Amino acid sequence: MKIALISPPASGKGTQAKWISRKFDIPRISTGAMLRKHVADRTEVGMLAQEDMNQGKLVSDDIVIKMMEARLRKEDCKNGFLLDGYPRTMRQARALESTEVPDVVLYLEVGDEEIVRRMSGRRVCPNCEAVYHIINDPPESEDVCDKCGSKLIIREDDKEETVRKRLEVFKEETSPLVSFYTEKGILRRVEASGSIEETRNNAERALEQLGNL
């Protein structure tokens, strides 16, 4: 089973990707996680990507395509995979078409204001990388990590102005993928504004339509 997830930021894509990966026993391939690893390791790719990420821009297609093509050639992708956050642009989609064609593309739909609420409320521990939310999952002490006691921070790409910029970029560059995959007959829309469980149920119903569960 070859599945791709596309969605705006803070749609819960990562959470749903973990569940789908376990369900089908296929590797979850997250462009975000791969890029963050490069940034943390201060590789050449990471340094190039960091500036774009901080400004709310999509990372260069050249960087992402090269990284993903190498990943999809690995042995664990032979029987399927789950793409978490790829493709994000039409150029990436066409590059994917030349190597692997998804069986289904799930599009997680969330309203703009809900996305801003979710992202601007995030707090991250710079030491142990624990993640909190001031409304949904606050730390016991304000701005202090429960696990290691470090002062929590707001990541640059979680600030409201950056979030709104990312949404603009998404609509300009990623939304055309919805039409692209709809025309191919493989897009399934999933309402993702509710709870994790509600979104999971919606995703499961979408996948059941394929007759593969």
SSE topology sketch:
Layout: E1 2-6, H1 13-24, E2 28-30, H2 31-40, H3 44-54, H4 61-72, E3 81-84, H5 90-97, E4 104-109, H6 112-120, E5 122-124, E6 131-133, H7 160-174, H8 176-184, E7 187-191, H9 196-208
Helix pairs in contact: 2-3, 4-5, 6-7
Protein described:
There is one protein chain. This protein has 213 residues and is of the alpha/beta class. It is 46% helix and 14% strand. A 5-stranded parallel beta sheet has the order 2-3-1-4-7. The protein has a two-stranded antiparallel sheet with strand order 5-6. α2 (31-40) crosses α3 (44-54). The longest helix has 15 residues, at 160-174. The mean pLDDT is 89.
Concise overview:
With 213 residues, the protein is α/β, with parallel strands linked by helices. The chain has helices at residues 13-24, 31-40, 44-54, 61-72, 90-97, 112-120, 160-174, 176-184, 196-208, and strands at residues 2-6, 28-30, 81-84, 104-109, 122-124, 131-133, 187-191.
Number of domains: 1
Number of helices in the DSSP assignment: 9
Please describe the biggest sheet, giving its number of strands, its sense, and whether it closes into a barrel: 5 strands, parallel
Q: Find the structural class using helix and strand composition.
A: alpha/beta
What order do the SSEs take from the amino end to the carboxyl end, as H and E? Answer: EHEHHHEHEHEEHHEH
The CATH superfamily name is P-loop containing nucleotide triphosphate hydrolases
Q: pLDDT average, as an integer?
A: 89
**Shape label:** globular
Poorly predicted runs of 5 or more residues = none
Q: Give the number of DSSP strands.
A: 7
Over the alpha carbons, how many angstroms does the gyration radius reach? 17 Å
Distance between the termini: 11 Å
